[in-house]
Amino acid sequence: MTSTSAQSRKTLSKIACNRLQKELAEWQVNPPAGFKHKVTDNLQRWVIEVTGASGTLYTGELYQLQVDFPEHYPMEAPQVIFLPPAPAHPHIYSNGHICLDILYDSWSPAMTVSSICISILSMLSSSTVKQRPVDNDRYVKNCRNGRSPKETRWWFHDDKV
Amino acid sequence: MEEFDYLSSGEEEEDCESLDGIESDDQRWTSTSLSSTQVITEESLLAAQVEDLHRVMDLLTVREQHARTLLIYHRWDIDRLIAAFVEKGREWLFSEAGVTMVESRNSASSWSSSPIMCEICIEEVPPNSVTTMDCGHCFCNDCWTEHFIVKINDGQSKRVRCMAHKCNAICDEDIVRKLVSEKNPSIADRFKRFLLESYIEDNKKVKWCPSVPHCGNAIRVDGDAYCEVECTCGKQFCFSCSLEAHSPCSCPMWDLWVKKCQDESESVNWMTANTKPCPKCNKPVEKNGGCNLVSCICGQPFCWLCGGATGRDHTWSSIAGHSCGRYNAADKAKRAETDLYRYMHYYNRFKGHMDSLTLETKLKASIQEKVSIVESKNFGNKDYSWVINGLYRLFRSRRVLSYSYPFAFYMFGEDLFGDDMTEKIREMKKNLFEDQQQQLESHVEKLSSLLEEKFDEFTEEKIRDLRMHVINFSVSVDGLCLKMYECIENDLLGPLQHAIHNIAPYNSKGIEKASELPIFQDTSANLKSTKITGANNALPRASTTNEKRATDSSQPSSSGLLRESSSMDENICSTRKRSRKDGRGDTLIDLNLPTWVVDKNGF
């Protein structure tokens, strides 16, 4: 699931590089609970393992998040998707796209990979049913040629789940 | 439907014998006072919004940038802004628009000398290189700058938000400009322009002049948006839809008509051969295979043979409850043909009057020639303004007449008002309208023929005679135009349910020329600003009262900021609309010409 979006292909700006190095360093000292960064030498693409929190529908299940950083990170939001198989969740499409406002409209440069991870885990944990969004098939069909979720006009679901 | 204030109503002299009464006709073509439409040029763009800004600044005691943020959020609709303020209060108004003011906060840099941690780049930075926004959030200047540039490049100049999570505050425009211009003056310039042009782009009272190449002007209309205006560049257009002036057609009618005229020529033949109109919505439907039951996209099933509406139940060979013979099928095909003939009838008359107008514009030169010949003859009366006035009246009424045909095409056709009138009423109204139209038509033709007389060869007495006639017909044509509009307003469009068909009112004088907006003397000093040198490139201010504003912005300089920035246009904002600087001269004749005549003749 590679994004074709041009912006994420551009190399990181100096600000983005510095910031990501800082974030990575901080992560190594103090990773968010339930997440594991898979070490690569690619600063622009992180792959993170998530373990479903205990006491939730996803207890013990393992999923992988892929985080791609754009040239102007953190002024621009990173692209975050689940690598297949994506967890069954009312806000997660089968192609791994996540309907979560902070990844798009509500992104703020003050947020970090860590804070995204925590939001995603909390989104998973609060789910009461393992099912796909109602418009899953239509949406996934529309994304067939590798469209980035950042190019989607998101209509955010209720924030209860 | 609104009552129109016909500007001419006071001047409708019936006693044309009195020549004095006619002389006042002069005024009609020259008077531009009391204009409710104004031209906003590059130079007056700031002055144009100063009034609105000041009203908000005074009402809410806020700084100019906050007033601007509020106005942009409310799309420059002061009434709406004030209503929101009265209903929901100041706090709501501010937070909704992203205006945040943390009171009596000390700027972080003033009390701390130790390094500050910027939460964006996660670096420690010296206190003199951070900036605290009005909302109280403090980040380092490099991060702010990067953030601003990303937002400006992303086209979000008008609402650049604070970087803090969930902070809705709009960033201080002075800070944005200052920081960005240190790194990239051209982007800072673009930001400034976006803010200024918000007054045009986001304001329903202001529209860009649609001239091509663009004259760089915008037009502001204070009253009814359904009006026709003329920019100082000479371009006349319908303010409501920005297309050419088309009254008494409504905008939707004109839109349909233009499309129809474009499509019709090529596709009429194909359509008559291959499609049938849906009996419900009248869209042409093509049958591309299958049985004779055809379904329109509107859902209406109909019989392909006869074109009549049917039910859905059918087999390959028959439609339940429906039968039609060959004879009827031919009948319906004729109907499609009639539709085409109907269109051609209206189109030919529309086009005919336009062509006459084009020819008549050529009259002006020959008339002027004749006038100078007659003047040299030293007759008693030396005033020949009646010829020119008659000509203007001819242009004006010719246009009305021409556009009255597409109007009639839709008014009495099935496309728009098929369900609004019974056949009988439609027929009655059509006759009523056509009577008026014909009367106007015959008077216009008469006026036209009078103006073509070779009066340079006339005797003094014959000229007196001609003068009387021209004046009489000028007045009667004006009156007939007015009557036709009244008929349209009161009898035709007025009774309709949906009021989407608004038309620009008839204006005896012709299309209103937008007046130049004065650039106020008292503000022009403050309008000037320093060159972009970093610290002092504040937006030009128009304030004269607020001390705080005056001190940080009234740096004298040699040139106006707006003018300076125009040089960047071509490079940075190739899509921006400032290009043609040469306005056309003050030739009077363009007042009543259709735009293509104007363009062709280069008036």
From TrEMBL, chain A:
Protein's recorded name: E2 ubiquitin-conjugating enzyme
InterPro entries recorded: Ub_conjugating_enzyme, UBC, UBQ-conjugating_enzyme/RWD
Record-listed E.C. numbers: 2.3.2.23
Signal peptide annotation: none
CDD domains referenced in this protein's UniProt entry, alphabetically: UBCc_UBE2W
Cited function: Accepts the ubiquitin from the E1 complex and catalyzes its covalent attachment to other proteins.
PANTHER family, per the entry: UBIQUITIN-CONJUGATING ENZYME E2
GO MF terms held by the record: ATP binding; ubiquitin conjugating enzyme activity
This protein's UniProt keywords: ATP-binding, Nucleotide-binding, Transferase, Ubl conjugation pathway
Positions of the UBC core domain: 15-161
Keyword flag Nucleotide-binding: yes
Top-rank lineage group of the source organism: Eukaryota
SMART domains assigned to the protein according to its UniProt record, in alphabetical order: UBCc (SM00212)
Keyword hit for Membrane: no
TrEMBL record, chain B:
Biased composition (Low complexity): 553-565
Lineage: Eukaryota, Viridiplantae, Streptophyta, Embryophyta, Tracheophyta
Family as reported in the entry's similarity comment: Belongs to the RBR family. Ariadne subfamily.
UniProt catalytic activity: [E2 ubiquitin-conjugating enzyme]-S-ubiquitinyl-L-cysteine + [acceptor protein]-L-lysine = [E2 ubiquitin-conjugating enzyme]-L-cysteine + [acceptor protein]-N(6)-ubiquitinyl-L-lysine
Organism listed in the record: Acorus calamus
Database matches in Pfam families: Ariadne, IBR, IBR_1, UBA_ARI1
Protein name: RBR-type E3 ubiquitin transferase
Gene3D superfamilies: 1.20.120.1750, Zinc/RING finger domain, C3HC4 (zinc finger)
Pathway entry: Protein modification; protein ubiquitination
Domain RING-type: 114-328, 118-166
Region named Disordered: 1-23, 531-585
GO terms, biological process: protein ubiquitination
